[in-house]
Amino acid sequence: MSVESAESTPDEPFADVLALSLTELRTIRHPVLREVLDDLRERAAQPGEMLWGYGSAF
Question: Where does the source fall among the domains of life (predicted)?
């Protein structure tokens, strides 16, 4: 099943997104998936969170 066919007919089973590459995931036009991927891209671009108080736990 191609990505386009998964978009066009809701009666067909969903595509296995685990088998898709990141490039292929970008081509799927699904609002929730798009929002999740946008959030992941933003989080990946930011520096890692500091572990405040990590040393004081000991």
Answer: Bacteria
Task: Tell me what pLDDT residue 6 has.
Answer: 46
Asked if the structure places residue 57 within a domain, the reply is: no
Residues in the chain, overall count: 58
Q: 3-state class of 19 per DSSP?
A: helix
In tens, the pLDDT along 9-56 reads 556 667 688 888 888 888 888 888 889 888 988 888 887 766 666 665
Nearest one of 8, 41, 24 to 16, comparing CA atoms: 24
- The single residue listed with the structure tokens 């040393």 is 55
Range of the domain at 33: 3-46
